[in-house]
Design brief:
Length: 137
Protein backbone atom coordinates (compact mmCIF):
# COMPACT_ATOMS: atom_id res chain seq x y z
CA UNK A 1 0.00 0.00 0.00
CA UNK A 2 2.82 2.41 0.85
CA UNK A 3 4.15 2.23 -2.71
CA UNK A 4 0.81 3.54 -4.02
CA UNK A 5 1.32 6.61 -1.84
CA UNK A 6 4.84 7.26 -3.13
CA UNK A 7 5.30 10.76 -4.53
CA UNK A 8 1.96 11.89 -3.14
CA UNK A 9 0.95 15.23 -1.67
CA UNK A 10 0.01 14.63 1.97
CA UNK A 11 -1.89 17.00 4.25
CA UNK A 12 -2.30 16.18 7.92
CA UNK A 13 -4.86 17.48 10.38
CA UNK A 14 -8.54 18.15 9.85
CA UNK A 15 -8.35 21.66 8.33
CA UNK A 16 -5.54 21.00 5.86
CA UNK A 17 -6.79 17.50 4.97
CA UNK A 18 -10.34 18.71 4.36
CA UNK A 19 -9.04 21.56 2.17
CA UNK A 20 -7.11 19.09 -0.01
CA UNK A 21 -10.09 16.68 -0.26
CA UNK A 22 -12.47 19.50 -1.28
CA UNK A 23 -10.00 20.98 -3.79
CA UNK A 24 -9.57 17.54 -5.42
CA UNK A 25 -13.34 17.05 -5.70
CA UNK A 26 -13.66 20.52 -7.30
CA UNK A 27 -10.72 19.94 -9.66
CA UNK A 28 -12.14 16.66 -10.94
CA UNK A 29 -15.72 17.90 -11.34
CA UNK A 30 -17.18 15.96 -8.40
CA UNK A 31 -19.69 17.44 -5.92
CA UNK A 32 -17.90 18.88 -2.88
CA UNK A 33 -20.44 17.43 -0.44
CA UNK A 34 -19.60 13.89 -1.56
CA UNK A 35 -17.20 13.34 1.34
CA UNK A 36 -18.68 14.67 4.61
CA UNK A 37 -15.56 14.04 6.68
CA UNK A 38 -14.99 14.44 10.43
CA UNK A 39 -11.76 14.44 12.43
CA UNK A 40 -9.50 14.00 9.41
CA UNK A 41 -6.04 12.66 10.26
CA UNK A 42 -4.54 12.65 6.76
CA UNK A 43 -5.49 13.17 3.12
CA UNK A 44 -3.12 12.28 0.30
CA UNK A 45 -3.10 12.35 -3.47
CA UNK A 46 -0.68 11.00 -6.08
CA UNK A 47 -1.18 13.08 -9.22
CA UNK A 48 0.59 10.64 -11.57
CA UNK A 49 -1.81 7.76 -10.75
CA UNK A 50 -4.87 9.56 -9.35
CA UNK A 51 -4.63 7.56 -6.12
CA UNK A 52 -6.29 9.37 -3.21
CA UNK A 53 -6.57 8.30 0.42
CA UNK A 54 -8.29 9.71 3.47
CA UNK A 55 -7.75 8.69 7.08
CA UNK A 56 -10.18 9.89 9.74
CA UNK A 57 -10.39 9.16 13.47
CA UNK A 58 -13.78 7.50 13.38
CA UNK A 59 -16.35 6.13 10.97
CA UNK A 60 -18.88 8.74 9.80
CA UNK A 61 -22.50 8.09 8.84
CA UNK A 62 -24.11 10.87 6.85
CA UNK A 63 -27.72 11.18 5.75
CA UNK A 64 -28.10 12.93 2.39
CA UNK A 65 -31.50 14.48 3.14
CA UNK A 66 -32.51 15.38 -0.40
CA UNK A 67 -32.44 11.72 -1.45
CA UNK A 68 -32.97 10.12 2.00
CA UNK A 69 -29.80 8.07 1.65
CA UNK A 70 -27.63 7.03 4.59
CA UNK A 71 -23.96 6.61 3.66
CA UNK A 72 -21.17 5.21 5.83
CA UNK A 73 -17.57 6.46 5.51
CA UNK A 74 -14.94 4.20 7.09
CA UNK A 75 -11.84 5.38 8.97
CA UNK A 76 -9.86 4.71 5.79
CA UNK A 77 -11.20 5.65 2.36
CA UNK A 78 -9.24 5.31 -0.86
CA UNK A 79 -9.67 5.12 -4.60
CA UNK A 80 -8.50 6.48 -7.93
CA UNK A 81 -9.78 9.92 -8.91
CA UNK A 82 -10.05 11.13 -12.49
CA UNK A 83 -12.29 13.61 -14.30
CA UNK A 84 -15.87 13.14 -12.99
CA UNK A 85 -15.06 9.67 -11.62
CA UNK A 86 -13.73 7.75 -8.61
CA UNK A 87 -12.79 4.12 -9.37
CA UNK A 88 -11.78 1.20 -7.12
CA UNK A 89 -13.32 3.06 -4.20
CA UNK A 90 -12.94 1.44 -0.78
CA UNK A 91 -14.37 2.50 2.58
CA UNK A 92 -17.75 3.88 1.45
CA UNK A 93 -21.07 2.04 1.86
CA UNK A 94 -24.63 3.17 1.12
CA UNK A 95 -27.57 1.69 2.99
CA UNK A 96 -29.99 -0.24 0.78
CA UNK A 97 -32.94 -1.62 2.72
CA UNK A 98 -31.20 -3.71 5.40
CA UNK A 99 -27.89 -4.10 3.57
CA UNK A 100 -24.76 -1.93 3.35
CA UNK A 101 -23.23 -2.78 -0.05
CA UNK A 102 -19.81 -1.17 -0.64
CA UNK A 103 -19.69 1.55 -3.28
CA UNK A 104 -16.94 0.73 -5.78
CA UNK A 105 -17.30 3.53 -8.34
CA UNK A 106 -18.80 7.01 -8.56
CA UNK A 107 -19.34 8.73 -11.90
CA UNK A 108 -20.78 12.17 -12.69
CA UNK A 109 -22.47 12.73 -16.07
CA UNK A 110 -21.46 15.62 -18.28
CA UNK A 111 -23.97 18.46 -18.24
CA UNK A 112 -26.87 18.90 -18.80
CA UNK A 113 -28.13 15.69 -17.11
CA UNK A 114 -26.79 16.63 -13.68
CA UNK A 115 -26.79 12.99 -12.58
CA UNK A 116 -24.33 11.08 -10.40
CA UNK A 117 -24.07 7.27 -10.47
CA UNK A 118 -22.93 4.98 -7.63
CA UNK A 119 -21.91 1.45 -8.59
CA UNK A 120 -21.48 -1.38 -6.08
CA UNK A 121 -19.33 -4.50 -6.41
CA UNK A 122 -22.57 -6.45 -6.88
CA UNK A 123 -23.08 -4.53 -10.13
CA UNK A 124 -25.99 -2.49 -8.80
CA UNK A 125 -25.98 1.12 -9.98
CA UNK A 126 -27.99 3.88 -8.30
CA UNK A 127 -28.47 7.29 -9.92
CA UNK A 128 -29.23 10.55 -8.11
CA UNK A 129 -29.22 14.30 -8.87
CA UNK A 130 -25.76 15.82 -8.33
CA UNK A 131 -27.32 18.63 -6.21
CA UNK A 132 -28.04 16.04 -3.50
CA UNK A 133 -24.27 16.01 -2.84
CA UNK A 134 -23.63 19.76 -2.84
CA UNK A 135 -21.88 21.14 0.21
CA UNK A 136 -24.15 21.35 3.23
CA UNK A 137 -26.71 18.75 2.08
Amino acid sequence: MADQKEGGIVKTGHEEGLKLAVSLLEEFGLPVGLLPLADVIEVGFVRSTGYMWILQKKKVEHNFKMISKLVSYDTEINGFVSQKRIKKLKGVKAKELMLWPPVSEITVDDQPTGKIHFKSFAGITKTFPVEAFAAGQ
